Structure formats: C-alpha cells, structure tokens
Amino acid sequence: MTPESLIASASINIALAFMILWLFSILKKQPRNSVIYFARRLSDHRTPPPEFHASLSLFRFLPSVEWIPRAFRVHEDEILRRHGLDALVVIRLFKFGIRFFLLCSFLGVSLLLPVDYYNESDVSTRSYYSMDSFTISNVRRGSNKLWVHFSCLWLISFYALYLLYKEYKDILLKRLQQMRELRHRADHFTVLVRQIPLCNEHKTRGCGVDHFFSKHHPFSYHSYQMLYNGKDLEYLLGKEKKLKKQIEDMRQKDGNFSRAAHNQKQVSIYDEKLREISHKICHLQSEIMLKEKELPVAFVSFKSRRGAALAAQTQQHSNPLELITEMAPEPSDVSWRNLAIPQKILPLNKVGVVLAAALLIIFFAIPVTAVQGIAKYEKLKKWFPPAMAIEFIPGLSSIVTGYLPSAILKGFMYIVPYAMLGMAYIGGSISKSREEIKACNMVFYFLMGNVFFLSLISGSLLDEIGESLSHPRDIPSHLAAAVSAQADFFMTYILTDGLSGFSLETLQFGLLTWDFIRSNTYARGKERTPYLFSFPYFRVIPTVAFSILIGMVYAVVAPLLLPFLVGYFYLGYIVYINQMEDVYAITYDTCGRFWPFIHHSIFVSIILMQVTMVGLFGLKSKPSASIATIPLILITIGFNEYCKIRFLPSFKHFPIQTAVEIDELDEENGAMEVHYLDAANAYNRLQPCLERTASMASPASFSQPLLVGTDSI
C-alpha cells in the first residue's frame, strides 16, 4: 500500500463520517424520525419524551453537535442507574481503550517513532511499504536501539495489567453493590432445576421436585413452577393475537358497522373463531392437561437468597445427572425455547454449532484473501496483469487499494456477529445473556483467527512467495517485514470501523430505509410504534475487543497506528452513550457478567503482543531481548490465574456472605416476604404457553402462579 492509498482511505473515511454525522444531526431533529432515534425514550414512560422545535423552523434543518457534549456530561452513576451494570461495562471498555492507548500513543510518538525513523533498514524490500520507515522493521538487526522497544513493551504490559486489575476490582465492587440495591430481583430467590425425575408415587415431575425440596430444604423452600411443552399452546396464542388484530383493523376502517353489513358479518365470524380458540387455550392450560406436558425443568423459589444460593451451588442428588441446579436467570432473560431442549440432545447441538462455525470460517477465508489481494496491488499486478487497467483512471488505484479492502472486509464482518448469535442460540443456552456472552467469545476468536491471522498470512504470502522460494535463508527477515507491513492495512481497518462504522451506527440507515418502505406501502396510515431493540452486546463488545488486540500487537511494532485508536475509542464512547440514552433498550442486567469475557480477550491480546515481540526480537538478531521477554509472558499468565481465583468466582456464583447481608437488610425493612412472593410469581407470568388473555377467565388452578410446597406452608 502506497502513501497515496493510505491518505485516500483516511480522506474517504473522514469525509463519510462528517457527512453521515451531519445528516444524523438533522434527521434526529425531525419528529417523524423519533420512532428510530428516540425509541427508548418513547417506550420508557419514566423518561421525558423528546422535545422538537416548531414546524418549518430553521433550526430543525441545520446540523448540530449538541448530542456530543451531552454524551460527555453523562456520569457513570447515571448509566448504572438507568441502564444497569452491563451497559456500564461497555462504557468502561471504551474508557479502558482511551486510557491505555493515550499512554501508548505518548510513548510511541515521543520515543518509538524517532527511534524507528532515524535508522537504516537492512530489509531489501523496504520500498514496497509505506510505513516501514515508522515501524520496527526500519531498525537494523542487532541494534541496541531495540532495547528501547523492549523497555516500552515491559512498561505498557505492566500498565495494561494494572488497568485490568483496577477495572476487575472496581466492577466486582459495583456488581456486589448492584446486587444489594436490586433486592427485588426474582432471580435472587429462584433456582433453575433440570433433569427432574418422575415421582414414584404420582408419576409426575412436579410432585417429584416438590417432595425433594420439601424434604431436603424444609425451612427455605417455598414453591415451584414446572415448565411445559407448550408449542401447540403458543401456536394458538399467536393465532388468537392475529385474529384480535384483524378485528381491530376492520373496526378502525369502518367505524360504524351498521353501514357495512359485509364487514359486520366478517367480524362476527372472526369473533366466533376467537371464542373457539380461547376455549381451546383454556382447556389446554388446565392443570390436568398441563401435567401431561411437563418438562423435566422447573423454577424453584426459596424464602431467602441464602437458601437459593446454597441450593444452586451444591449437588442435590446422589446421581449428579439428576436434579442439576443453578441460579436462575432473571425472568426477562430466560430463553424459554432452549429450556425445552432435552439434555441428551444438547451435545448434538454443540456439534452442529462447531460444524456451522467451521463452514463460516471456510467461507470467510475467501473474502479475506481477496481483500489482501486488492490491498497488495503492486504484487497483484504481477500475478494478475488485467488488474493494471485501474491505473488508467487517475486516483482510482489509491482508492481501490486504500479504502476498498477495509470497506469490503467490514461489510462481510457485519454478518458475523448475527451468525454467531444464531449458533449460540442453537447451542442451548438457558438465557439470552449467556447466548450473547457465548456469541461475544465466538466472534472475538473468529475475528482474531480469520481477520487478523489470515490477513497476515495472505498478505505475506502475496509479498514473499517469489523471494522466499529463491532465497530460503531470508524467510525470517521477509516474514518480520511482512508483519510490520500489515500495519497500514490495519490502520485503514481502524479508520473504516471507527469513522464509518460508528457513524453508520448513529444513522441507523437500515431502519430509516425500512421505515420509509413500510410507511409508504402496507402500513400506510397506521400508527407508527418505536423501533425498540435490545442493546447489541454480541456485536459491540467483540468488535471493540478486536480493535484493542490490533492496537496492542502493533503498539511497539508500528506506533503510528496508536493515535488513530485513541480517536476510535473516543468516537465509540460518544456514539454508544447516545445509543444507550435514546435508542436501545436494556432488556436484562447480568450485573456485569460480560466483564470476565472482556478481561480474557484483553489478556489474550497482551499475550499475543508479547509473543509477537519475542519473535521479532529474534528475527532482529537480538536473542537476549527475546529471552528477557519470556518472564514477562509468565508474569502475565500468573496475573491472569490470580484474577481467575480472586475475581471470577464472584461473577459465576452468588456469594453466601452477600446473600445473607441482603437478607438481613430485607428482614430489617420487613420486605423479605414481599420480595420472595413477587419472585414466586415472576416466572409464571412470562412463560409463553401460560400467557393469559383478557378475553379468558383464569381458571382456579392459576390463581397462584407457582405451586407452593406442601411441607413449607
């Protein structure tokens, strides 16, 4: 990639970002677009609705940046109170990137860049790369100036470990504090029990779970709620909703049915169908019918958090494959369909996920290799002479080699998080949050393998294949040069992902297009409802973590990349605070369980940075620096093992000490009974097949949403 290509990429991305943000600031002021840009505020009755200027006022059509300083004014405590700890974890990830790369940028620009630039490279292919003069490849083999890079590596490694420890400790404290403040949460009193055996006496699973917990947890057990195989019920409930909507639409169209005999007759037919379906639903939801549809899964409610925590974290049955317990996810977080999957089928689902991921990796290798072919245009011309045709148009080659590769790669990458989320769903996670955490892990490793490593391999392959065959002794030096040569490509990637990617996130171009088509076709004249979606953790967190990986690997190799990363994290911080405040809904809160994954991804990035430097010091004929870096790797691994022991268990489990402290607070306030009774009702209300409609009278069997244990009354 030539300097012109790099400048072309930067210019296009900056221009696109300014244009998109300018357009966003105008569209956001239009009342018609409030269902897109203020979806959360319109749906949340606790927050004031957005205020718009009078129609046809000039201010509505002028771009503004008032949303940017507003994002900086939002305090962490406000994010925690309004959106929960998971949302704060995302913001802290951006802050981590800002703090870390600010120091790295200072060291890189003031120390490493002069050292790299004022040297004479011994790599003969230096002229091919635009950034070689600013990378470690410009330092001569065996030069003592490599100790500067060694010192910077140790310094930024320890700074990263310090930030990681500080963040882990702080988020754990906030997690425990959040658990104390959210004393009303149903999941604190509820345990999910799977693989429930049949009761020998009554031949039902519900009776079995009640007898077991009444006997073995007599003082803390309160009630249980079985899960049911209610596919037929869910189908009828969906059909009932559809009929109700059709009746409402017909009544709204005609207004007075005495004038429209045909419609009146049609509505009468629909009403009759509706009554028939309601009767079927009522029959299927009776206690006798539900017992035949019991699944070996139940939510068991306890009278205290301590009782629930002890039951969830201990083996209940002598056969560890029966009565498997764990803390239940909060009701809005439950993945009801996955709970219905038999335990014996889950391994097959996981095998299917592995096969699907392998196919996606193979498919994605094609565009990554093609992208590197476009980026390495100088070599591509030798292998594919027709590519020289783009040189006849002035400036086109710079655009094609500078902007196009990263734009194509980002376009293909957009589908990856959604594909991985689908695979995580197939894997059988019991909650949506676990699906997203699994998807985060899968997306991160996919990006690290298919984008980072494959880009290095395919890029170096096109560069080195000829000279490596003719001069096999020079393979190490050529590979070292190729690693640093990819810095310009990843710089354009950061520019595209940050400037264009974050800008398009604010614009919500897909929703704008869909809303325009919908409003002018089948939904013309109908009331427009907010386009409210859950915050996409599975898309945001791994993408940002991957950018941290790129920055860390190139922090010492190519420090010119670092200032771009500072801008990347600042822009992401502003954009996602705006999206949290106005656009996305926070549908659940795991109290910070996303942070262990973030910590792990940053740890992997630090290790990869250190291992890369071990190889580069060796290729630069500085074996003493390579050997001296190995203790740093061991220190980093030891630090990670300490964090696993010190912090991770408190994220996986409900500490008994914390549970007892919260119980004592509830007992002092006289709120314990209210909270565990609310918890007992919470899961029944949200189980899809037990949904009750206003047109149906609730049978006596549903007067108590959870079945109360006979021995606990």
- The tally of beta strands, per DSSP, is 5
- The oligomerization state is single chain
Secondary-structure-derived class:
mainly alpha
Q: What Rg is obtained from the alpha carbons, in whole angstroms? A: 30 Å
Shape: globular
Mean pLDDT: 83
Q: Beta-strand level of the residues, as a percent range?
A: under 5%
Side-by-side strand order of the widest sheet: 4-1-3-2-5
Distance between the termini: 76 Å
Helix content: 55-70%
Low-confidence stretches: 122-129, 461-466, 473-479, 696-706
Describe the sheet with the most strands: 5 strands, antiparallel
The number of helices is 29
Could you explain the architecture of this structure?
- With 713 residues, this protein is mainly alpha-helical.
- It is 66% helix and 4% strand.
- It is built from 29 helices and five strands.
- It has a five-stranded antiparallel β-sheet with strand order 4-1-3-2-5, sandwiched between helices.
- Helix 4 packs across helix 24 (562-582), helix 18 (415-426) crosses helix 19 (432-470) and helix 25 runs antiparallel to helix 26.
- It is globular, with a radius of gyration of 30 Å.
- It starts with a helix and ends in a 5-residue tail after the last strand.
- Mean pLDDT is 83; it is low at 122-129, 461-466, 473-479 and 696-706.
Give keywords.
713 residues; 5-stranded antiparallel β-sheet; 5 strands; globular
Per-chain topology:
Blueprint: H1 3-27, H2 34-37, H3 39-43, H4 67-73, H5 76-83, H6 85-117, H7 146-181, E1 190-194, H8 205-216, E2 221-228, H9 231-254, H10 261-284, H11 287-291, E3 294-302, H12 305-312, E4 324-327, H13 336-339, H14 346-375, H15 377-383, H16 396-402, H17 404-413, H18 415-426, H19 432-470, H20 475-485, H21 487-507, H22 509-519, H23 537-557, H24 562-582, H25 595-619, H26 623-646, H27 648-652, H28 656-669, H29 672-686, E5 707-708
Antiparallel strand pairs: 1-3, 1-4, 2-3, 2-5
